[in-house]
Amino acid sequence: MAPTAHLFCLLALLVVDLAQGIRGSLRAQDPGPRPLELKEVFAWFQMQFNRSYLIPAEHARRLDIFAHNLAQAQRLQEEDLGTAEFGVTPFSDLTEEEFAQLYGNRKTARGVPSMNRMAEYEGLGESTPHTCDWRKKTDVISPIKNQKNCACCWAIAAAGNIEALWSIRSKPVEVSVQELLDCNRCGDGCQGGFIWDAFITVLNNSGLASERDYPFQGKVEPHRCLAKKYKKVAWIQDFIMLQEDEQRIAQYLATHGPITVTINKKLLQQYKKGVIKVTPDTCDPRFVDHSVLLVGFGRDKPGEGMPAETVASQSRPRRSLPYWILKNSWGSHWGEEGYFRLHRGSNTCGITKYPLTARVVPPKASLVSCPP
C-alpha cells in the first residue's frame, strides 16, 4: 500500500533532518543518527521503490549504504550553487561503485572519430532565442525510456536524436534502440558505448527499424543482429561534432533540433530536481561517462525552487539562472519526470566535451524554430 500524503510529507521532512544528522555524525565520528528513525525512512524507501533483500546481513548492508548516501546528498546540497535538490532517489541503496557499474559507461573514450568540430554551419548568423524547449512541439521528443541494468545510454540518446530530427524535418518515428545494441560495431552494447558508435552503426546498416518491429529487451544476445529482417523507418546522412562553445551549441539546438551530449554523471545518483550548478572540483568536466539528449534551455526565475525562508534571508535578490534541459534514460520516476537541468555557461559536468548530432535526409529547405 502506498504511503498516505500525510506520511509522505512527514517522511520527506525526516529525510532532510536525517541527512543533516548523519553528516554531523560522520564529522563527529559518533555512533550515528537515531537508528529507529533511519530504519523508518529506509522502510519507506523500500516500499516506494519496491526494494527487498533476501537475508538480514544484506538488509543491514543496504541500510548502511542508504545512510551514507543521505549524508552525501546533504553535502551536495551544501555545495550546490544553483537550485538543485539532492536526497532519496531510486539509487539510494547503491554504492557509488555499483551505480557507476550499472549506469555509467564501462568503456573509455578510445577511437574518437577523426572529425573537425563544426566551426560554421547553417544558421550561425541567426540570433539565439532566450528560451527553447523541444518538448513543447508535438511528437518531436519520444517518451522517457528506462535503460535498467543495460549500460546503453549512448544508444538511447542517439536514437532520441535521430527521432527528433526526423520528426522535425519529415515525419514522427520511434526507432529501435535494441538494433543499435545487437548490431553495435563494437559488439558489446550493454557494456557501454559512445554516440559515434551508434551513428556509425546506423550508417553501416543503412538506417534503423522501428521500435515496434524491433523492441527493446535490455540485454544483448551474441550474434543476434536482425538489422536485415525489418524495414528501415529512419536513416542518417552523416554526423557532426559541434564546437565546445555553449552559445553556439544553444544556437544550433534552437535552429536545427535536439543534440546529444556526454557528461559526468557523478551528481545524478542523488539528484531530485532543480538546476545543478557546481565547481569543477565537485563535478570534473574532463571525465564524462553518461550520454543524454539535450532538448532545450532557459532561465529560472529568482527564488524558483528555493525555500521561502532562504529567499527572505538573502541580502540581495539572486539573478536568474541559465540552464540546459536534458532528457535522461532512467525512467520517468527519476529527476524531473525523467529530465534534469544543468547550469548553462560554465561547462557544468563537461557538457561541451562531445556535443554530437546526426544529420538526416531529406533536409528541410529552411531553418526550424524551437518552441519557447
Automatic annotation (TrEMBL):
GO terms for cellular component: endoplasmic reticulum. GO terms for biological process: proteolysis. Its main location: endoplasmic reticulum. Keywords: Disulfide bond, Endoplasmic reticulum, Glycoprotein, Hydrolase, Protease, Signal, Thiol protease, Zymogen. May have a specific function in the mechanism or regulation of T-cell cytolytic activity. Residues 1-21 form the signal peptide. This is Cathepsin W. The keyword Zinc does not apply. Residues 128-359 form the Peptidase C1A papain C-terminal domain. Residues 42-99 form the Cathepsin propeptide inhibitor domain. It comes from Carlito syrichta. GO terms for molecular function: cysteine-type peptidase activity. InterPro entries: Papain-like_cys_pep_sf (IPR038765), Pept_asp_AS (IPR025661), Pept_his_AS (IPR025660), Peptidase_C1A (IPR013128), Peptidase_C1A_C (IPR000668), Peptidase_C1A_papain-like (IPR039417), Prot_inhib_I29 (IPR013201). Belongs to the peptidase C1 family. It is found in: Endoplasmic reticulum.
